[in-house]
Write the C-alpha cells for this entry.
Amino acid sequence: MTATPSTRLCRPYVLTGGRTRGRGVDIPLEAVALTVGPAWESGRRVPPEAFDIAELCNRPCSVAEIASRLELPVGVVRVLVADLAADHALRIGATAQADAPTIVSVALLERLLAGVRAL
Amino acid sequence: MRSELPPVALKVLVAGGFGVGKTTTVGTISEIEPLRTEAAITDLAAIADVSATAPDKVHTTVALDFGRMTIDDTLVLYLFGTPGQDRFSFMWDEIARGAVGALVIADTQRLACSFPAIDYCERRRVPFVIAVNCFEGAPLHDEAAVREATAVAAGVPILFFDAREQNLVKLVLTALVERALACARGEPVVRAS
C-alpha cells in the first residue's frame, strides 16, 4: 500500500529533518527544476519524496507544480529541491526575484512580450 | 549528467475580488489544467498580519491556483491566482516578489471587490492593468467610469474582456507585459503625488 497524502504517517517536516530551509537560498514558487544527475550519489540519506521529485523533474517542473503534483507542502518541496540542487542532482532555473523586488528587467520583459505576441 | 539549463521562469499575478473570474482567466490561457497547491505562511510578520485582521482565523496554509504558459524553450510564464479573500492578502507578498505584474480582474457590478488588489499593486509598486470581465454581457460602466471609480494613474490600461476567450485573455496579458515594460523603462507605476 502506498501512502497517499491523507494517510501519510509522518508529519511533513519529518521529511526535511525539521528544517524549513534547504541548504541554500529560498527558492521561488515559479522556479523551474530539472533533474541532471542521480539523487543518490552524495551518499546522504534521501527521503523517498526526493526521489519522486527527481523523477518528476526529468521534465522541467516548477516548485509550485512539484508541490501540487506530489501533494506535498510548498515548504517541504523547497527544502528537498534545495538539497537535491546542492547535491547536483537538480538544476534550478533563473527567476526575476534575484534582480529586483518588483520590476523585472527590460531585456527579460522584451523577450516575454515578443513571446506572448507570437503565441 | 545532463548539461541543459532549466528555463527561466517569470510569473504574473491574477488578482481581484472573490468570484470575478480569476480561475477562469488562468484556465483559459494555461497550457496545463490549472493546478492547486497549498502555500504555507513562511514568516512571522505574515502571521502577525493575519492575527491583527482576523484573530480567529490564523491559517497556516492557503490554496493557490496556478497555470503555465511555455513562451519558448528557455522561458516559461506562470500565472498565479491570488487568494480572493482579504484575510489571505498576506500571501500576495510571496507571489508578488519578482512578478512581471498583476492582472486585476474586475466586475463592474462589484467594482469595489477589486479595490484591495489595486491598492496592493499601487502600494507595492507592482505594474498592473485592470481587466474588466464582461462574461455577463455588456459592462455596466464604460472605461471612463471605471477609471474615475478606481482613480488609477493615467498610464494604467483598463481593458474589457471575456475570461473564457483565449484571444481576449492573451490581449489582456499582452497589455500587462507592455505596461510592465513601460514601468521598467521608468514610467511611474502610480501617479506622482
In short: Chain A touches chain B through 49 residues (CB under 8 Å). Chain A has a mean pLDDT of 81. Residues 74-86 of chain A form the longest helix (13 residues).
